[in-house]
Design goal:
This protein has 382 residues and is an alpha+beta fold. 30% of the residues lie in helices and 26% in strands.
Length: 382
């Protein structure tokens, strides 16, 4: 049995069970559709916890499993990954790899030495002195994820634990790849949806993915070529193993790396829908030291998208038992209270073109939010 540990384990569990693997999932939410996929333990529902990653790992240590895969939230905690791996086969990057590839200074030096683009990035101590105020800057937590805590920086003192990175103008994208510790195979490239008000997201919060990105075919080809070179370099330079993702900004000519996520990433289910890859099988093969053969993907015949719908006010959801059949994932339980600023669910869709697909997802999000207001009203969350 494979143990899955993540802030949200639904997507990983769905990819695994679709391929016939026996898994047990530990995550924060314990969503309704996750419970229908496989045995699961929720920190909030079953263990009375408050959502801290250390509490998830505490629970995982009490479960017998031959191997473990970690997802979002643990790339910033190599100490917890080390605990997860004790007595089990770790299917993913080692704690030492996490420490190195998540270090902005080491990452930037490695990329620039290979002729790859990485924005000017300064530590909290360096930024007030070295950051050129004529440029635009973002303040980012070193141990961040999903765009949380990212905001504009225009000067002033900074706390420890943040960096200041030059803001690159362009389209935010994400490359998904798989590595065997020496080389990498690109699985696909998606556009990242960031801070879209129609989905209830603000600022720089990640709220979904589109495959393919909304670019002309020639630019998509150039982006994929750049992403392949970036992923191959990172795999060799840092010993990446298994599924990983690279966040980039495409400025029309080159891909600027802004972050590496050394674990399975949220874009995988959209990439599978368009390119037909079997990402969970690819992960297992690569972790065993066999880099899978991935066919070069041509211009896709259709598009796929996922959109995370955030609550803009405190709500309580109605009966959600039929939501999964409507292309809704990460389904909350009937009657569950959701506070403003927190995710309600994820919408999945396929279509002919990414532009129309995004418009449809945003229309569905608006309709869902209106339905919640009309049917159950708005309630304060205790």
């Amino acid at each position: 049995m494979i143990l899955l540990v993540s802030v949200s384990a639904r997507m990983l569990a769905e990819l695994a069970t679709r391929e016939g693997h026996e898994v047990l999932a530990l995550d924060r939410f314990g969503d309704l559709d996750l419970q229908q996929l496989c045995p699961s333990v929720s920190l909030l529902r079953d263990l009375g916890g408050r959502g801290r990653m250390a509490e998830l790992v505490d629970a995982a240590e009490r479960i017998r499993a031959e191997s473990v895969i970690y997802g979002a939230g643990l790339e910033n905690r190599p100490d917890l990954v080390d605990r997860l791996a004790a007595g089990r086969t770790l299917l993913g990057c080692t704690p030492e790899t996490l420490r190195r590839v998540r270090d902005p200074s080491l990452l930037g030096d490695s990329l620039r030495s290979a002729g790859l683009a990485y924005p000017r990035t300064f530590s909290a101590a360096e930024a007030p002195v070295r950051a050129d105020r004529a440029r635009r800057w973002l303040r980012k937590p070193v141990r961040g994820g999903g765009g949380r805590g990212v905001r504009e920086w225009r000067g002033g003192r900074l706390p420890a634990g943040v960096v200041v990175q030059e803001r690159i103008r362009g389209l935010p994208c994400s490359a998904a790849a798989v590595a065997d510790g020496r080389s990498a195979a690109l699985l696909g490239v998606s556009e990242q949806l960031i801070g879209r008000p129609a989905l209830g997201a603000r600022g720089y919060a990640w709220c979904g993915n589109l495959v393919p990105p909304r670019l002309a075919a020639q630019e998509r080809h150039a982006l994929a070529h750049a992403a392949r070179a970036i992923c191959t370099h990172l795999a060799a330079a840092f010993g990446l193993r298994g599924l990983f993702g690279v966040d980039v900004v495409w400025d029309g000519e080159q891909a600027w790396v802004v972050e590496v996520n050394p674990r399975p990433t949220a874009s995988l289910e959209t990439i599978e829908a368009v390119h037909g890859v079997r990402s969970f099988a690819a992960h297992l093969e690569a972790c065993a030291g066999r880099l899978p053969t991935v066919r070069s993907f041509a211009e896709p015949a259709e598009a796929a998208g996922k959109a995370v719908v955030f609550a803009t006010e405190d709500v309580r959801v109605p009966d959600t038992s039929a939501w999964a059949a409507l292309g809704i994932r990460d389904v909350p339980h009937p009657g569950e209270p959701i506070a403003a600023g927190h995710p309600i669910c994820t919408l999945l869709a396929t279509g002919c073109a990414p532009e129309a697909l995004l418009a449809g997802l945003e229309a569905r999000a608006a309709a869902l939010r209106a339905e919640l207001r009309d049917r159950v009203g708005v309630h304060a969350v205790a």
